[in-house]
Amino acid sequence: MPDPQDLDLLRDLEPVVEKNLNRHLGMHKSWNPHDYIPWSDGKNFYALGGQDWDPEQSQLSDVAQVAMVQNLMTEDNLPSYHREIAMSMGMDGAWGQWVNRWTAEENRHGIALRDYLVVTRAVDPVELEKLRIEVVNRGFSPGQNQQGDLFCENIFDSILYVTFQELATRVSHRNTGKACNEKVADQLMAKISHDENLHMIFYRDLSEAGIELAPNKAMKSLHRVLRNFKMPGFTVPEFRRKAVMIAVGGVYDPRIHLDEVVTPVLKKWRIFDREDFTGEAARLRDDLAVLMKELEVACDKFEVSKQRQLEREARTGKKVTAFELHQTAGKLTLSRR
Q1: Which residues are involved in binding Fe cation 2 (predicted)?
Q2: Is 127 part of any known ligand binding site?
Q3: Among 3.40.50.1820, 1.10.10.10, 3.40.50.1110, 1.10.620.20, what is the CATH number of 7-29+60-326?
């Protein structure tokens, strides 16, 4: 159940949740995962008299494989996400209706992605299953940073975090579809990214209503979220190395994060134009302006690192693969191709 200190805010925002849920249901266009899987390309694996996976069977580039698997692993952690938002938002009234609806829509993303990857033999299905087990075992909390510390302290933290996370996921899915350079994958990822965009709109507008209700409290949460922001996929083994490859491949990088995720959301909320932040909240808003400049610097540094990475790959021929870790004697060890 939600923390007692959040109950007033949950109650005050429930009419907004109901309104946004009804709008979401009106805007959402139903689609079926099975319609975007090329079933005619599929064939049995060894256990049923067929052939097990071989690397030569994949038609996706290294970048596309890494991005598709990373996206799938992010979706696979749905049990953790459902648990966290149910505990944060509660299961009563409009809040509970949204939690269940969101979970149902997110669940088909993982179903569709896995079916596509297995049917097309785009990646090793055995390693895919090992990685799924590992990722789900690790779990996830929305306010968890890379040190394992929790920074989400209230309902504001949760809905603000998910706003940025849903938009980032939408961008990542869409760019992954393009990176696959394959018509069916592109269509599938477009469907998934459309769902994620509607989820983002729900949380973005709910957050905006919360900012109007309690601007100072909201600003403290916004500052905490952006200063600690990490994508859900960071719990996937070797996330840093895979994130670099995804960034170098143009799927999701610091510039995309700043220009297509952080900046438009802050602009929509008029964070730097509002005059209702006072005291510590006003100071934290000023620090967000500093953060934006820091992100600009990070973008410039990334371009330099990207060029070095490309030169290194050209020189050595070594690249990160979708499955960097293997279970050996009960321990995870790094493997390179």
Answers
A1: 106, 166, 196, 199
A2: no
A3: 1.10.620.20
Contact assessment for residue 200 and residue 219, using Cβ atoms and an 8 Å cutoff: no
The structure tokens listed for 197 are 């965009």
When pLDDT is averaged across residues 41-65 and rounded to a whole number, the result is: 95
Binned at pLDDT 50, 70 and 90, residue 316 comes out as confident
212 known member of a binding site:
no
Q: Find all residues with CB under 8 Å of 67, minimum gap 6, and list them.
A: 172, 175, 176, 179, 246, 249, 251
Q: Which two tokens stand for residue 262?
A: 């952080």
Decide: 235 and 138 in contact? Cβ < 8 Å: yes
**DSSP output for 35-89:** GGS-GGG----GGGTS----GGG--S-HHHHHHHHHHHHHHHTHHHHHHHHHHHH
Instruction: Convert the pLDDT of each residue in 126-167 to its tens digit.
Output: 999 999 999 999 887 655 444 444 445 688 999 999 999 999
Name the average pLDDT for the chain. 89
Around Cβ 201, how many Cβ atoms within 10 Å?
19
Tell whether residue 182 is among the known ligand binding residues: no
Tell whether 196 is in a known binding site.
yes
* This model's pTM is above 0.85: yes
The answer to the question of whether 84 is labelled as a binding residue is: no
Tokens matching residue 79: 């049990």
